Amino acid sequence: MSMLKYFFKRILAMVPVIFGVMTLTFILSRMMPGNPALAMLEAQGIAKPNPEVIRAMEKALGLDQPIIIQYFRYLADLFTGQWGTSVSIARNQPVWDLIMQRLPLTIDLALFSMLIASLLGIRAGVISSTHRNKARDTVVRGMALIGVAVPVFFLGMLLQYLLGFVFPIFPTTGHKNFIYPNPEFVTGFYMIDSLISGEIYKIFDYLYHMILPVFCLSFITLAGITRQTRSSMLEILEQDYVRTARAKGCKERDVIHSHALKNALIPTVTVIGLNFAALLTGAVLTESTFGLAGIGNLLIFSIYLTDYWVLSAVVFLITLIFIFATLFTDLLYGILDPRIRY
Amino acid sequence: MEEYQIEISEEDERQEESATKKVLKWFSKNLLFLILPGSRLEDLTIRQMEYEKLISKRKFIRRLKSVLTIIGILIVLAIVTLAIFPHWISPYTFAEVGRLAVYTGVWDPPSPEHLLGQGAMGRDVLGRIIFGARASLTIALPAISFSVILGIMIGIIAAYYGGWLDAVIMRLCDILLAFPGLVLALVFIAIWGQQIQYIMLAWGILGVPYYARLIRGNVLQARALPYIEAAKVAGAGSWRIMFRHILPNVIQPIIISFTFDIGGVILGLAGLAYLGFSDASLIEWGNDINAARVYLYSAPWASLMPGFMILLTVLGFMLVGDGLRDALDPRLRNL
Question: Whole-angstrom Cα distance, residue A272 to residue A221?
């Protein structure tokens, strides 16, 4: 019962944050330079409109009303999915469609990186803490230190050069061989659609293309998770209850996994959640390096081409994803650590 | 009796010193009190104070002596030297690697005159790397100082007064923290323009809620300690309690975070420059990587060398941060 109460409390705490995020996005998007009505008119092909035409367009967009009414209309539009129309990235295409085309790729990237980074990171942290100050520990710590300090794009470019050019093993850009057409649209996710339409070779092609970007992104998240797991495991392995478990005669494997790791996972899960922000940030840079058409790339191009609506929609979406990831981490934290539920 | 009279005359002599000297002394004394472990006001006898200073400094420096930390300190010193004295170290002058220099041999491989090859417009890559150290450090340090100072003030005020002020400030910090860093920095730069001062301001604003959060936890713990009550009973005002009693005890995680954050902001600046959202006329590592990006296969030195410098710099700061964290609080030891 208290678990449900905890869940409700956390979800309730997110609601003002989401409203605050929507308000801040609104304020920031209104502070952008340039007139959105002008941009919309240019997208429709009118190069130098009269002031009357501009005013008519402003009226159509609702920009001449008081700012409070604009704010509430903005909130209403955000909830109903009318996130505006793109003016320069994809002429006159609704932003919602544009985002939904590109979101599955970023989700795939983030999901794969997160899975690999969490599993491998926790394993590496455990190995590093149990074989302390030996060769394995030094190697893992060295790689974790480099992973925390390396810029994503540098790692990406280095891998592109070494593994794409010097030894041409992996493809360096894109998420598929450009000859292959996209599979039929069912969900938007490339792998699921290929599976449904029966073209299994496309799945392998996709995985082959995603190896380098996922490696880059996961290397950096892995480093942070390894460091955190290692330090919490070190702290826990000195505790009395671990010594008791060993004295009871538990197998060493059980001592480490069932007794120590379960408690060490608690701050690690928090770090995994916090690293999700770094993952989204890294996704922006990785998509730019590897030429993937995801949300991060959309964000950058919407700033280059000053696409007003796309920018505010993408910022809102990325923040929403991050908020939900934090919420999920909080809930997971509540499941793992019974102390905070009471 | 005679000794007493000599003491009076010494005090008279001391009042001769100028106002600036007095201000400097006050400033340095308070700064040392806030930052160094072991600085204490003269509420102890001189001998006790000297002893305390010696003991805590000895412990601190002994804990600081590990191989990795010394390597980190050396790397940081090297980068700072590159930032302060580039004209002495670089094989080419600033004009020869700057914006207006154009040479033959664009994107040439490493040669005896150009040790790391040539980059855009034939400029020397090594020279540009050396001159590029300045940009990273001089943009990162004011940005972080801004976030630290503002974050500390907001955090202490929020945690000390508590109540609705605390709730409102923490809500605002939550909202700002809900945005991923680079995304918000990109939006700020889209709004304000691509100049250095706005980049600094963007990263400064992004760091404030993090430091406010960080210090708030410790201040909440420190607020309940008995010596705060004693200070209140003795008649100390709120500001005096906040900044003279609480602050020196909660500043340790801030110092550690500061060092890690320098690395983080350098990475962020390089990321912004790589995407093209930085001042393109600046000699910066990220700008060089962006310009050399399309020539990765034909001239890898031009983009991989600046990237390696970024890695080295951030690695140095991370090592120093790790070492500081282990030295300042052995309970948080990672080693």
Answer: 8
Residues A69 and A161 in one domain: no
Q: Is B113 helix (H, G, I), strand (E, B) or coil?
A: coil
Residue A100 lies in a domain: yes
Is pLDDT at B117 greater than 60 in this prediction? Answer: yes
Nearest CA-CA partner of A154 in A297, A301, A289: A289
**A117/A49 same-domain check:** no
Predicted confidence (pLDDT) at residue B160 exceeds the cutoff of 50: yes
Is A330 inside any structural domain?
yes
Judging by beta carbons within 10 Å of its beta carbon (0-12, 13-18, 19+), is residue A174 exposed, middle or buried?
Answer: middle
Domain coverage including residue A168? 95-336
Examine the domain organization and report whether A49 and A121 are in the same domain: no
With bands split at pLDDT 50, 70 and 90, how would you rate the model's confidence at B41?
low
Q: Which residues of B touch A32 (CB under 8 A)?
A: 190-191
- Which member of B184, B296, B315 has the closest CB to residue A146? B315
Q: Which residues of A touch B276 (CB under 8 A)?
A: 304
- Cross-chain residue pair B334–A227, CB shorter than 8 Å: yes
Report the predicted TM-score, pTM, of the whole model to 2 decimal places: 0.85
Cα angle vertex B305, ends A114, B302, to 5°? 110
A42 with A155, same domain: the answer is no
Beta-ladder partners of B118: B124
**A84 in a domain, yes or no?**
no
Interface probe with B: pick from A23, A274, A281, most Cβ of B within 10 Å = A281
**B263–A318 C-beta distance less than 8 A:** no
Identify the band that residue B262 occupies on the pLDDT scale cut at 50, 70 and 90: very high
If asked whether residues A113 and A71 sit together in one domain, one would say no
Residue of A32, A231, A285 with shortest CB distance to B271: A285
Residues A181-197: pLDDT tens digits?
888 877 888 888 888 88
What confidence tier does A33 reach under pLDDT thresholds 50, 70, 90?
confident
What is the complex's ipTM, to 2 decimals? 0.88
Count of CB contacts below 8 A, A vs B? 129
In a domain, A284, yes or no: yes
